[in-house]
């Protein structure tokens, strides 16, 4: 899997691998827990991947925790707060991903007991406005550290979501854009389409529906990832999501899946997601809680 390969080479001297690219790979690890194409991710937390997100009536606050298997050793926390402002949605974003259990060695493979810090964090603001067509933008500051080396950069992203009635939803966004380039591995482009395939009463719900989706991630100096997903929702109370992703690694293609549950309880939403993992590395999972402001 491409992101695992980057994590491995990220431990090489900084002269071989750019700090920004290594930090972006940690964010791609976080994205493995999204049970949909990134451009179509729902909820307040979705502004980290597409700033063109609708807003609850008075705003929302969301916190997610991410954990990867011990064979990878990465974890993270994401936080988003969004409020009504200037006729649209103003958001405040913070996220941190880190790789733990890295220890220094000398002339032997035995660790010296000294840990090697490897983390990336980002903070900034987002703004979105619109109705059937939502246009959003985000400005973020990133800080990445590997061992004793640190690198910072500023990114500006734009996104758009377009609803064609209640049947079709289209979305596209840049992610961590800092240069006009299609070969920069520290940034990428997202696109996706979602189509309502069925709706009607089901298992006691009067307004159940099933949506199918397709998405792609590209323009990052490597081959594209392709997503094929489905979402079964029961009004605003419960939804189950599943996405299959075809990723191209350095040698070959791999397919993984991510499943998620979205449970609504009053003004709160609990989101759980877990991927299947590839190459026997184990699966990553995410636990998120979102509260709508009143």
Structure description:
The structure is a single chain. The protein has a single domain, classed as monomeric porin ompg (Porin), CATH 2.40.160. Helices cover 7% and strands 58% of the residues. It has helices at residues 2-9, 19-31, and strands spanning 60-67, 74-85, 88-99, 103-105, 111-115, 118-130, 133-146, 149-164, 168-175, 188-202, 205-218, 225-234, 238-248, 253-265, 268-275, 285-292. Strands 1-2-3-6-7-8-9-10-11-12-13-14-15-16 form a 14-stranded antiparallel barrel. The protein has a two-stranded antiparallel sheet with strand order 4-5. A hairpin with a 2-residue loop joins strand 2 and strand 3. Helix 1 packs antiparallel against helix 2 (19-31). The longest helix has 13 residues, at 19-31. The radius of gyration is 19 Å and the shape is globular. The model is unreliable at 1-17 (pLDDT under 50).
Short description:
With 294 residues, this protein is mainly β.
Features:
294 residues, mainly beta, Porin, 14-stranded antiparallel β-barrel, two-stranded antiparallel ribbon, 16 strands, globular, disordered N terminus
Q: What's the CATH C level?
A: Mainly Beta
- Unreliable sequence segments: 1-17
Counted up, domains total: 1
Number of helices: 2
Please trace the helix and strand order, writing H or E for each element.
HHEEEEEEEEEEEEEEEE
CATH architecture: Beta Barrel
Summing up helix and strand content along with how strands pair, one would put the structural category as mainly beta
Determine the CATH topology.
Porin
């Amino acid at each position: 899997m491409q992101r695992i390969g980057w994590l491995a080479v990220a431990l090489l001297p900084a002269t071989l691998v750019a700090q920004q690219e290594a930090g972006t790979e940690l964010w791609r690890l976080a994205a493995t827990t999204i049970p949909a194409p990134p451009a179509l991710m729902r909820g307040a937390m979705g502004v980290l991947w597409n700033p063109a997100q609708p807003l609850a009536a008075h705003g929302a606050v969301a916190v997610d925790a991410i954990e990867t298997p011990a064979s990878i050793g990465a974890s993270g926390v994401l936080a988003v707060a969004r409020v009504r402002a200037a006729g649209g949605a103003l958001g405040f974003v913070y996220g941190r991903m880190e790789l733990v259990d890295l220890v220094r060695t000398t002339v032997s493979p035995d660790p010296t007991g000294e840990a090697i810090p490897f983390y990336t964090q980002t903070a900034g603001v987002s703004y979105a406005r619109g109705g059937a067509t939502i246009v959003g933008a985000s400005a973020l500051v990133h800080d990445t550290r590997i061992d004793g080396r640190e690198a910072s950069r500023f990114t500006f992203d734009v996104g758009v979501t377009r609803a064609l009635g209640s049947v079709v939803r289209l979305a596209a966004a840049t992610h961590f854009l800092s240069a006009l380039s299609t070969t920069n591995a520290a940034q990428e482009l997202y696109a996706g389409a979602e189509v309502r395939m069925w709706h009607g009463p089901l298992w006691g719900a009067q307004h159940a529906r099933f949506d199918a989706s397709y998405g792609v991630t590209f323009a990052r100096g490597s081959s594209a990832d392709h997503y094929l997903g489905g979402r079964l929702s029961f009004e605003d109370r419960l939804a189950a999501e599943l996405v299959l992703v075809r990723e191209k690694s350095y040698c070959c293609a791999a397919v993984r899946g991510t499943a998620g549950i979205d449970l609504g309880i009053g003004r709160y939403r609990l989101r759980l997601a877990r991927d299947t993992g590839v190459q026997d590395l184990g699966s990553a999972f995410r636990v998120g809680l979102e509260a709508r402001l009143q």
